[in-house]
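Revision sheet: structure tokens.
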Amino acid sequence: MPGPLEGYSVIDLCRAGPGRHATGILADYGAQVVSIVQPGYAQKAAPGEGGLRRGDMVNPRNKHSLFLNMRADGALEVFMRLVKQSDALMESNRPGAAQRLGIDYESVKKNNHNIVYCSLTGFGQTGPYSSIASHDIGFQAVSGMLPLDEYGNPKVPQVSQGQADLNAAYFGAMAILMGLLGREKTSEGQYIDVSFTDISLRLPAEHKDPMLFGAYPGFNVYETKDGRFLSLSIREPWFWERLCRLFEKEEWIDHIRPKGSMLNEIFSFLRKEFKSKSLSEWMTILKTHDIEFGPVNSTMEHLLGDVHLNHREMILETTAPDTGETEYEPGFGMKFSETPAELERGPSMMGTDTEDILSQLGYSAMEREELKRSGATA
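Predicted:
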């Protein structure tokens, strides 16, 4: 069954994870996404533990990919042909890079004034920081998103890596959707400037609450008898009261944020108690008493064995295009009743669709060979 975004086509110019994740969300729900890949980029990518990062060689599920060297003869024409057939474009180059390549919004708009063009960058397209190179922790730092301890100091070891990146990815996908919705009313496309830092600053003030980063017993992780872990996520006083009464510790009820010796006392007690029973036993007890908790799934084995995730169909089985081995992908988080997301195609090697896309753009076999000889494609 077609997804809700079927019929929309999106160009993905992003090399970094957040932009690729944003367009991946659109692809999962039916949009035709074409990733533009620089030939040889995987060979230049930073190596991981086992060599090259697979993310630079393997195209994510539900996406198509096209090898295109934008600096080579003929490449810009290929790109603009694709632009004329597309509804939206997302890029994540540093400000100014797209303009130097002739693929910035103003250039693209001349070929398709209806296109929704989204730039997803760390500090945005304007401002004193716009040219600074940085990654996730830098955006968290500027936005005030770094976790704080009970004294208001940054807790750098407990920084949630990727938080700013992921938030920007979700907002980037939403920006494209809003742009397309706006186009339905005006018949005009537009340019959208999305900044990781701006998005992080937009998050609720609660993200700076030390309770959220393990400073208190009710919001923490504990080991169980079988070597598994469970998380308590208690912020409301009534849930804290239920935990205190479960352990017959009524004297703790008014101390959801204990300090000093009481803090150490409660931590010590809970750590000892939770190690007295298995994770399964505690899940039954805590669920029965309606106390906020969650099992910690820290391995693939845990995820595959989680009854709730399996019920929600959140673990999908795919085949790795480079090794042929079985791999697992996260399922689809938004459940549409009439137009559900589907795994239409699994991961593929980068550039797999180059010939098909060029053919669809009207390039003959001879012209495709010429593009290869010029270095525009591979």
